[in-house]
């Protein structure tokens, strides 16, 4: 246990969670992070960006960890970590996704990373006005929003989990 | 018709739609996981005011945060105002944001570019 503690401490982790994510838990995590940002006297711009990006990351996890393909307990568990850096924050998330979704998701993220700030804006507006919505209320805007707000390339990776699924990790860095 | 008043909560905004004055307010945070349900009565209320005798409607947006799930609903609200204008009424939006909140300003500009409703951007020191 001390190793875990020391590791989290070394990485300046201000919040970490692993488990099943519920609506109430999501609210609590956001509440905790807001209090911490307040306590660290972060400038408003940083507070807003960290909060906005965390909302989108958590809601992505919430919507997709309840996918029918991942009903098994261990696979619906997600991971969230927020670490303080010298010049901002890192928001890290991880969740298990069906193997067949890896290619589509990977292509989407690679595509987002190739876009300029203006192109991101154009794609955002196009997606906003397409009238499409998933059954769970997702609008396909989450990653675009994360990329726009963080003003950085999305760092992500996929690691095989078992023969049917992969572990998807996303690292978003927020600086002023 | 009745006013529409919804008290704001941790993830949903305060709604104060006054049918008498035609002044509508959405303020606070709009970050629910599934916003369709929350915005349904709002859209329905706008549907009603469209066929009422109210001629002038002003919607004030004073949002601190909104998520992407809400942005499609906010667009639906604005589209309703567009419809209200097509029946000959006067409908407009005033979007308030904090002067150092560039992301909110950019978001308001995004909406302004895609809707046919006058949208005024108003900067304030604090919402």
Structural features, described:
The complex is a heterodimer of chains A (176) and B (127). In chain A, 48% of the residues lie in helices and 24% in strands. Chain A is α+β, with helices and mostly antiparallel strands and 176 residues long. Chain A has a single domain (2-175), classed as 2-Layer Sandwich (Heat Shock Protein 90), CATH 3.30.565.10. In chain A, strands 1-2-3-5-4 form a five-stranded antiparallel β-sheet. In chain A, strand 4 and strand 5 form a beta hairpin. The longest helix of chain A has 21 residues, at 44-64. With 127 residues, chain B is of the alpha/beta class. Chain B has one domain (4-124): Transcription Regulator spoIIAA. In chain B, strands 1-2-3-4-5-6 form a six-stranded mixed β-sheet, with helices on one face. In chain B, helix 2 links the parallel strand 4 (56-66) and strand 5 (90-98). Classes of the chains: A alpha+beta (176), B alpha/beta (127). At the A-B interface, helix 2, helix 3, helix 6 and helix 7 of A face helix 2 and helix 3 of B.
CATH architectural label of chain A: 2-Layer Sandwich
- Helical segment count of chain B: 3
Question: What spatial order of strands do you see in the largest sheet of chain A?
Answer: 1-2-3-5-4
Beta-strand segment tally of chain A: 5
Output the strand order for the largest sheet of chain B. Answer: 1-2-3-4-5-6
- How much β-strand is present in the residues of chain B? 25-35%
Major sheet summary line of chain A: 5 strands, antiparallel
The end-to-end span of chain A amounts to 34 Å
**Largest sheet properties of chain B:** 6 strands, mixed
Number of helices of chain A: 7
Distance between the termini of chain B: 30 Å
The domain count of chain A comes to: 1
Amount of helix of chain B: 25-40%
Annotation, overall tally of beta strands of chain B: 6
CATH-level-4 superfamily name of chain A: Histidine kinase-like ATPase, C-terminal domain
- Topology order of chain A in helix (H) and strand (E) letters: HEHHHEEHHHEE
Structural class label of chain B: alpha/beta
Known CATH architecture of chain B: 2-Layer Sandwich
């Amino acid at each position: 246990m001390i190793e875990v503690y020391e590791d989290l401490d070394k990485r300046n982790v201000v919040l970490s969670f692993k488990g099943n994510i519920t609506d109430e838990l999501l609210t609590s995590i956001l509440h905790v992070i807001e209090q911490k940002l307040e306590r660290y006297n972060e400038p408003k711009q940083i507070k807003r960006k960290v909060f906005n990006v965390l909302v989108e990351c958590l809601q992505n996890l919430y919507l997709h960890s309840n996918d029918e393909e991942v009903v098994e307990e261990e696979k619906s568990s997600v991971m969230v970590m927020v670490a303080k850096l010298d010049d901002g924050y890192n928001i890290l998330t991880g969740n298990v996704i069906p193997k067949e979704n890896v290619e589509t998701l990977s292509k989407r993220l690679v595509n987002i990373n190739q876009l300029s700030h203006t192109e991101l804006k154009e794609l955002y507006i196009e997606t906003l006005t397409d009238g499409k919505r998933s059954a769970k209320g997702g609008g396909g805007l989450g990653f675009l929003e994360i990329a726009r707000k963080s003003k950085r390339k999305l760092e992500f990776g996929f690691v095989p989990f078992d023969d049917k699924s992969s572990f998807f990790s996303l690292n978003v860095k927020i600086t002023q | 018709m009745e006013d529409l008043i919804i008290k704001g909560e941790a993830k949903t905004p305060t709604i104060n739609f006054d049918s008498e004055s035609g002044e509508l307010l959405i303020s606070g945070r709009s970050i629910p996981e599934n916003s369709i349900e929350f915005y349904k009565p709002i859209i329905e209320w706008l549907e009603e005011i469209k066929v009422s005798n109210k001629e002038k409607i002003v919607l004030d947006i004073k949002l601190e945060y909104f998520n992407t799930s809400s942005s499609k609903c906010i667009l639906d609200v604005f589209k309703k105002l567009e419809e209200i204008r097509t029946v000959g009424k006067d409908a407009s939006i005033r979007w308030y944001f904090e002067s150092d909140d560039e992301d909110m300003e950019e978001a308001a500009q995004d909406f302004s570019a895609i809707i046919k409703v006058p949208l005024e951007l108003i900067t304030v020191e604090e919402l």
